[in-house]
Specification:
The chain is an all-alpha fold. It contains 17 helices and no strands. This is MFS transporter.
Length: 409
């Protein structure tokens, strides 16, 4: 089923494909994040400490960050249709192994397997969207695909947690495996079978990471997401100790946070539609102001909640723009590495999460919760500065290589 992207309006096949790719990210997001709500059950059942169970989360992120670009660089020379079906199948197997795990070690291995294939699936999904969607719709479609993760946090994780608490935590992974089977069944019929393939060795593609422009662009989302996660990592103590909100209401507030973050994906599509990188320069300044405002609003429950919900609105606004920007830069400097470039945004985000959590931990260990606000704001300002530099470099080079820079300008 070939899908051409010659018009500005989506045809029926493109709409169904967009839904299918969004469903995939929802399923992968649910599988990744649901463990957060089951740590107590996992630690009790496997007779490990809560801190050890927590490594299932950090281990997933590390495996994702390291394995995704390496494997994507290797497999991107092959046709996308069979690759998608193969990796969805491996994703299902990974979740089944998790469901059958009776030891911590086996569960860790299954989570690592799931992390790496999830990363490659996201990279391939973004590349497929770029290849098949109209130019004017690419930003909004990529934002929609990213929204699958947000919806997973709002709906998939609570549902998966409920299933795990109602039965056992293994039942949750049977649930995510079932979602994977549904995705596979749909993908067999919907994903285009004949898509362009750029053949290049993994070594050649990895050279893209030595390009200063790519490195500069890579760290924009890293610092943007680090700004949010410096605060978000400690959202529960901020709500309880800082804003004086009873524990019974925390889950409701976190649900509201997830709902507001859906708006972030809507904004992401609009920002990416027209010269998104130029807008991000100022978007990150707004993000810095919102994060910094918590320093002053933490003394008031209502004002503090406003700051936190606005923080949710800003969390994903850069995703679609950065995804397109990295792929467009790759098209300029090394066209054969476009699929590899499509894997870099999620990797940068995972590194940003780790950076934000580390910075937040240092601040809490040596200061107080209120100082998380300005440290997070500082990270957002660094992202803004990197965006300013990238935009200025684009303007200098656009006249030299105008045709190649058409997608960036």
């Amino acid at each position: 089923m070939a899908i051409q992207a010659r018009e500005d309006l989506l045809n029926t096949k493109q709409k169904v494909l967009a839904f299918t790719l969004t469903l995939l990210t929802f399923v992968m997001g649910t599988s990744e994040f649901v463990i957060v709500g089951l740590l107590t059950e996992v630690s009790t059942d496997l007779n490990i400490t809560l801190a050890t169970a927590g490594t299932l989360i950090s281990g997933f992120a590390i495996a994702y960050a390291i394995g995704t670009p390496l494997l994507t660089a290797y497999v991107s020379r092959f046709p996308k249709y069979p690759l998608m079906l193969l990796f969805i199948t491996i994703f299902i197997i990974g979740n089944i192994i998790s469901a059958l795990s009776g030891s911590y070690e086996l569960l860790v291995l299954s989570r690592i397997l799931t992390a790496v294939v999830s990363g490659v699936l996201i990279a391939l999904s973004m590349s497929i969207a770029s290849d098949t969607m109209p130019e004017a719709k690419k930003g909004s479609i990529i934002a929609l695909i990213f929204a699958g993760f947000t919806i997973a946090n709002v709906l998939g994780v609570p549902l998966g947690t409920f299933i795990g608490q109602l039965g056992n935590w293994q039942l949750t992974f049977w649930f995510t495996a079932l979602l994977g089977v549904i995705s596979l069944g749909i993908s067999i019929f919907i994903i285009p079978k004949h898509l362009p393939v750029e053949k290049a060795s993994a070594k050649e593609q990895l050279k893209l990471l030595t390009n200063p422009r790519m490195v500069l662009a890579f760290f924009i989302p890293t610092f943007a997401i680090a700004g949010t996660y410096t605060v978000y990592t400690y959202i529960t103590p901020i709500l309880e100790d800082g804003l004086g909100i009873p524990t019974a209401y925390i889950s409701i507030i976190l649900l509201a946070y997830g709902a507001f973050s859906i708006l972030s994906n809507v904004l992401a599509g609009k920002i990416a539609s027209h010269n998104g990188i130029s807008k991000l320069r100022f978007v990150f300044i707004i993000q810095a102001i919102i994060l910094g405002s918590l320093f002053f609003t933490m003394q008031s429950t209502v004002a503090g909640l406003v700051s936190i919900l606005l923080m949710a609105v800003m969390i994903y606004v850069m995703n679609a723009t950065i995804q397109l920007y990295l792929m467009n830069l790759a098209a300029v400097y090394f066209p054969a590495a476009k699929d590899f470039a499509s894997s870099l945004t999620p990797v940068a985000v995972n590194i940003g999460i780790a950076l934000g959590a580390t910075l937040g931990g240092y601040v809490v260990a040596h200061g107080s919760l209120i100082h998380l606000s300005w440290v997070g704001g500082l990270c957002a300002l660094i992202a803004s500065g990197l965006s300013f530099i990238s935009y200025r470099l684009d303007q200098k080079e656009v006249n030299v290589n105008a045709p190649a820079y058409q997608g960036i300008k």
